[in-house]
Amino acid sequence: NYMRKILFILCLLVSFYNYAQEEKKILKVTYTKTSFITPEGDFETFLYVNKDKAQYIYPQKQNTVSKNNFKMTLPFFKYINNYDLKTQEIEENRVLKDSTNLYAHWKNELVWEITDEEAEIKGYKVRKATTDSFEVKADDQFYSGKAIAWFTTDVPLPVGPGRYYGLPGLIVKLKYEKDKDSFILKKLEYIDEKDYTFVELNKDNLVDKEDTIYFFHENPKKVKEIQKNTKKNKK
Asked: Which of 49, 119, 141, 197 has the most beta carbons within 10 angstroms of its beta carbon?
């Protein structure tokens, strides 16, 4: 009986140690953002998840790509957002080319339609779900229609690339109904918490959710006002 008690305590200690170590890990998910023009425009985006929140980083650099004698300049487009796993709230910094930070926060209100369609992607059993995309306004000529996600409950976290949260599993692939842009899982790994520090968002320039999501050439006057106020506050 004495030896059994000792073994039981040792098992508890080992379990507790393993749990404590796991709590100190951060899930790092790397996605490849594919370009609808040419692979020259592909780049990596990153998602980091701990027990409380997810942080997604979209770091598109300005880049000129070409295909069949057609050239196109992809704009600088960078944003970082946090998703609170408990409250389902999102906060985001949109970083403009001159390093001005815009800040917005909102409740995740995406309505997902989960289908019965299943597949296997990157070694994961996945299920298809759709929702309205929101990177481009519905009345814009470049509106991409529905966002189509393939998620896996093998990783039961309600996170994914872009601003797409709320499914009962990690999004392995995300594409759009009307164009060929997509995000696809490249690598999934656990890293030590000391190897990544969550970026502290700048909350100075509060704007509406739409102002961080939609392209800012639609409202250049507002951008100039924000930049002017930012410079004034720094003096």
From this structure: 49
Q: Rounded distance, CA 62 to CA 75, Å? A: 5
Q: Are strands 70-74 and 63-67 parallel, antiparallel or unpaired?
A: antiparallel
- Helices and strands in the chain: count of H runs, count of E runs: 3, 13
What does the longest C-alpha to C-alpha distance in the chain come to? 81
| Strand 170-176 versus strand 146-152 pairing type | antiparallel
According to DSSP, residue 141 is labeled T
| Closest to 162 measured CA to CA, from 50, 72, 54 | 54
pTM: 0.82
User: What distance in Å separates the CA atoms of residue 118 and residue 129, rounded to the nearest whole number?
Assistant: 10
Tokens describing residue 176: 């759009």
DSSP string, 106-144: EE-----EEEEEEEEETTEEEEEEEEE--SS-TTSTT--
